[in-house]
Write a structure and sequence with these properties.
single chain, alpha/beta, 6-stranded mixed sheet, 4-stranded parallel sheet, 10 strands, binds ligand F0G
Length: 401
């Protein structure tokens, strides 16, 4: 199921109002989501929209990462600049708008961490009760802390993401809660705005590739839909190719892509240190498959070591991101090596989460203590250990020589 709308205004008029709204101080126009509201006109009344000024995330050139990825140029669209530090805020403002529109009082989600952080914040800001279900022991502390700070009732369930999602789908009806997971079509509508904002920032020049990590596959479904609709509305004249990158231990979509036909075979026990994408049975795979195929794109998978090293390279650009986001650069490196992406092509990689979401991972990598699931040690290839120094100027001077 996807939301569809009839023809809207002329493309030149839309481009003009999208740009002009950046100068307005009204909350709706300051939001990098609602600024593009003609592209998802599902609300009759905008007065109760809950916005934390989401979106407005930068495009950042990253020469060091470009070189590492085998490209002449690489630009990151950094969704970690969002109010709760991930791309989930783009979708959540729309999902919560729909919950309010329906008169719902309680909202719920299952999450690997970022959706819950985002939902907790938007529910709090909108005066809704938030109920969160998390896989116990398998989300980063930063994300869990956000949910607690924003006042959500938080249940850590002893099961993995896929199992809890099945559980909550049954419970939602019984408990009268509005489910705000990524199969919620209104969240998909909001996440489309990431592509509209990217194109607006590029003066509507279309990149050759948009590369993103894949977990539950809601985001690639949203990007594909947004790009198709931008083309239908005459805002752009061609589609960029979509490349989805999965972590090797949680890569059922990559396996399906390689097989080329049939349905998705879930991974029973998905594993990866990039816990945001530790998902074995992604619900949105049919939509995602359609969008990747339609764009002429591809799907790649990367190892734990490749993710960790790519992440450190993104850090060396002064940018930083969480582990799942770094799968993009690791994937680009593989795709250029295989000649799927040409080094001269324009590539935009979407960094989905903020560097501070998982600081434990960073510390372990740089101090040589990071271990992949199964106990295999991750090499600290680009490690940067802190140095313990005595309280002595001569000895410190000696250390810094
Ligand atoms: N990157 C980050 C940082 C994420 O948090 C997620 C998903 C993804 C990538 C994958 O996006 O699921 O649309 O393919 N996180 C969800 C959550 C599952 O619960 O926060 P996807």
């Amino acid at each position: 199921m996807e939301a569809t709308y009839g023809a809207t205004q002329q493309p030149e008029f839309l481009k003009k109002i999208f740009r002009e709204r950046r100068l307005n101080n009204t909350p709706l126009d300051q939001s990098g989501v609602w600024r593009y509201r003609e592209m998802f006109p599902f609300l009759e009344d905008y007065s109760r929209v809950v916005t934390l000024r989401e979106g407005n995330t930068p495009l950042l050139d990253a020469p060091i990462a470009a070189k590492y990825g085998g490209l002449f140029n690489l630009t990151f669209k950094h969704q970690g600049f969002n109010p709760t530090g991930s791309f989930k805020d783009n979708g959540m403002t729309c999902g919560v708008a729909q919950a309010v529109r329906l008169g719902m009082k309680r909202v719920a989600c299952v999450s690997t961490g970022n959706t819950s952080a985002s939902m907790a914040a938007y529910a709090a800001a909108g005066g809704l009760e938030a109920l969160i279900f998390l896989p116990h022991g398998n989300i980063s502390f930063g994300k869990l802390s956000q949910a607690l700070e924003y006042g959500a009732k938080t249940l850590q369930v002893e099961a993995n993401f896929d199992q809890i999602l099945a559980l909550v789908r049954v419970l939602a009806e019984r408990l009268g809660i509005y489910l705000l997971n990524s199969m919620n079509p209104f969240r998909i509508e909001g996440q489309k705005s990431i592509m509209f904002e990217m194109l607006d920032q590029l003066d509507w020049r279309v990149p050759d590739w948009v590369v993103l990590p894949g977990g539950n596959l809601g985001n690639v479904s949203a990007f594909g839909k947004g790009l198709r609709e931008a083309k239908d509305a005459g805002l752009i004249d061609r589609l960029p190719k979509l490349a989805v990158i999965q972590a090797e231990g949680s890569a059922p979509f990559h396996e399906l892509w390689q097989r080329g036909s049939g349905g998705l075979c879930p991974v029973k026990n998905p594993e990866t240190l990039a816990t945001a994408i530790r998902i074995g049975d992604p619900v949105s795979w049919p939509k995602a498959l359609h969008e990747v195929r339609n764009s002429g794109g591809t799907v790649e998978k990367v190892t734990e070591q490749e993710i960790a090293d790519a992440k450190a390279q993104i850090g060396l650009c002064g940018i930083g991101c969480e582990p799942a986001s770094a799968a993009t650069l690791a994937g680009i490196r593989k795709l250029t090596a295989r000649g799927v992406i040409d080094r001269v092509e324009n590539v935009i990689a979407v960094l989905t989460g903020n560097v501070l979401k998982d600081s434990d991972y960073i510390y372990r990598y740089h101090t040589g203590q990071l271990e992949a699931p199964g106990g295999v040690k991750i090499q600290s290839t680009f490690g940067n250990k802190p140095i313990v120094a005595p309280n002595d100027p001569d000895k410190i001077a000696e250390l810094l020589r």
